[in-house]
Amino acid sequence: MAGIWIIAETREQAFELLGAGRSLAPDMGTALTAIVRKGAGPPEETIARGADEVFLLPELPPDQPFGAHLPVIEQEAKTASPDLILFISSARGKEMAARLAARLGAGLCSGCTALAFDKGSGSIRMERLAYGGAAIQKLTASTKPVIVAVPPRSFEPAQVVDGRQGKTRELPSPPPSAVRIIEKKPKEKVAKDITEARVIVCAGRGFDKKEDLALARELADALGGELGATRPLTEEMHWLSADLCIGLSGVQVKPELYMGLGVSGQIQHMTGVRGAKVVCAVNRDENAPIFALSDFGIVGSLYEVVPKIIEELKK
Amino acid sequence: MPVVVACFKWVVDEAYIRRGAGGALDFSSVDYKIGEYDRNAIEEAVRLRDAGGGGSVIGITVGAPESAKGVKDGLSRGMDLAFFASDPSFKDLEPSQTAAILAEVIRSRIPQYDLITCGEGSSDLYAQQVGPRLAELLGIPCVCFVQKLSLEGGKLVTDRRVEDGVEVVEAPLPALVTVLPDINTPRIPGVKDTLMAGKKPVTTIKREELAGSFGATLKTEAMTASSLERTGEKLAADAAGIARFVDTLRKSGVIR
Ligand SMILES: Cc1cc2nc3c(=O)[nH]c(=O)nc-3n(C[C@H](O)[C@H](O)[C@H](O)COP(=O)(O)OP(=O)(O)OC[C@H]3O[C@@H](n4cnc5c(N)ncnc54)[C@H](O)[C@@H]3O)c2cc1C
Ligand SMILES: Nc1ncnc2c1ncn2[C@@H]1O[C@H](COP(=O)(O)O)[C@@H](O)[C@H]1O
Fold first, then answer.
1. Considering only residues 97 to 156 of chain B, which have any Cβ-Cβ distance to chain A shorter than 8 Å?
2. pLDDT tens over chain B, length 256 residues
3. In angstroms, what CA-CA distances link A99 with B96, B120, B161?
4. CATH code, residues A4-170
5. What's the DSSP call for residue B234?
6. How many other C-beta atoms lie within 10 A of the C-beta of residue B18?
7. How far apart are CA A16 and CA A115, in angstroms?
8. Element (H or E) spanning B178, and its range?
């Protein structure tokens, strides 16, 4: 047997991965199997959106992490021996993909930015970033299966196609996992999705304190845009939600305008704005790398320059 | 008195990579460093040892013989001793190979340990795989993306970051964690630390001293430089510069 598998925790993930799977399945001449949580939605819908077969993961007790399903999935994979297994590179997805890869002795292309099947050679071609985004690495698999983790929103969700048929099977409950969840602290507020923003004003470490971000927000409002941030602000200072982090470990954005304020322009960040139409910057250090990676910029303190830009915009 | 194993990688400093002829990567002026997040992994191991009133921190790195400099750098960050799996063929390994070698070093050379710390991702590949793969190969529990961690009575209690919030998670020891950058602030080694590092024990292990074949599961077909360069016009922070900045924005049609 062969096939493409998708393994998803949520409906949204499943639909995106089905979109990816459906784009490959005809050329690979193979079926698409969706492994999804039973609680994540009706299997009929998964089938309508492209799955030929659905394996349902039973609901787990609240203290059991998603990764608890691993031994069961491993067994199924060993029996069915799929060619390709797709995950979304969420925190849980990345961990599960790597652990499954180790169990199956499989290769894993994580943070995959391009995925295609080459009919001529019969190989799966993958791309990802390396060296913080300074390089693009092109990969093929030397063993089967190959596992691929794609960032969220890399693929259009699969649409419903009427009249599709498929089988559904419930997988057994896994043995209890040694890792136990003792408490969940859900995030208070979901930040805006900046991946679709037309204008992004991005705050970096050049801001001295959290309150000063009001200045960046004011400029974003004046430009009709959203606020984004570099990783130190979201991850180390915790001034802004991690959803707003742009770059290699955050999100990839493609606005018409990106303006970096107090952003040094390290490659791991700038790789996230490669799709921006116009990139500009305000930085007080004329040697900051961001200038070479911008269309234009002002050398000066953001505290002096930003109010003046806002003023000028009002004219 | 915990025994903590810290995994770290000696990597090319990406800031010095240039785009060469035809989009090739130009490494001619590069420098090397310990991966950013691996410094957090080392720091956390050292912190746990000190908080546990003793014990030891064992560093492990896999790399080409040139990475010996990295071993010393790692030792200057507070580790007690290091294992260095060194072979010319260990230069451009993919994560499955690195994890297999690390697992073999640990199985064969470290009879007892409580915790393994890894970075959230290596600075060069950022595959975010080696940690969880290693845990599976050793058959121990693993918790990834850890922001906070403590060892209490034979178990690990952590805060781990996921998209929908934070999960407080526990697991029996020995276990493996991958750590996020906010877990601690890595120390900057001083002259004394560097001097002391030279006296700490290092065990170098050659490929033939390890059992296993360490075959690759992925093949790199090409590695090309990406180009992010733009025109980079710099303007002054005076009235004229600001007027020109806003004018250029307007002309580019991005402001409505
Ligand atoms: C594997 C890996 C993945 C990473 N992923 C990401 C990622 O996804 N996103 C990300 O952003 N980073 C990421 N990073 C971190 C990245 O390497 C940089 O450390 C980070 O982007 C720097 O953020 P910054 O520009 O805000 O801060 P800094 O580098 O500290 O720069 C601050 C800048 O502000 C300027 N400044 C100071 N005061 C003022 C002032 N008053 N007015 C104007 N300018 C001022 C300074 O001149 C300086 O250039 C990653 C790192 C690694 C190793
Ligand atoms: N060559 C290596 N030697 C030792 N540890 C490594 C090596 N490569 C990766 N690691 C560890 O595994 C983590 C994840 O690496 P990666 O999967 O490449 O992103 C790193 O942060 C290190 O802690």
1. 99, 120-121, 123-129, 131-137, 141-145
2. 899 999 999 999 999 999 988 889 999 999 999 999 999 999 999 999 999 888 999 999 999 999 999 999 999 999 999 999 999 999 999 999 999 999 999 999 999 999 999 999 999 999 999 999 999 999 999 999 999 999 998 999 999 999 999 999 999 999 999 999 999 999 999 999 999 999 999 999 999 999 999 999 999 999 999 988 999 999 999 999 999 999 999 999 988 7
3. 11, 15, 18
4. 3.40.50.620
5. E
6. 13
7. 14
8. strand B175-179
CA distance B37 to B33: 11
SS3 at position B123:
coil
Looking only at Cα atoms, what is the longest distance across chain A?
69
Q: Is B184 in the pocket of ligand 2 (CB under 6 A)?
A: no
The complex scores an ipTM of 0.96
Domains of chain B: 3-209 (3.40.50.620)
Return the structure tokens found at B76.
Answer: 């200057």
- Say if pTM beats, i.e. exceeds, 0.90: yes
Backbone angles phi, psi at B193, to 5 degrees: -60, -40
A270 contacts B245? CB cut-off 8 A: no
CA distances to A3, A22, A36, A110, A158 from A30, in Å: 5, 10, 19, 23, 17
Enumerate the domain spans of chain A: 4-170, 194-313
Token pair, residue A138, equals: 């092109």
Note whether A158 contacts B: Cβ–Cβ < 8 A.
no
Give the C-alpha separation, B39 to B118, whole Å: 9
CATH of A194-313, one of 3.40.50.150, 3.40.50.1220, 3.50.50.60, 3.40.50.300: 3.40.50.1220
Q: Which residues contact B224 (CB under 8 A, 6 or more apart)?
A: A135, A136, A138, B23, B24, B25
Minimum-distance ligand 1 atom for the alpha carbon of B123: 1
For chain A, the residue count is 315
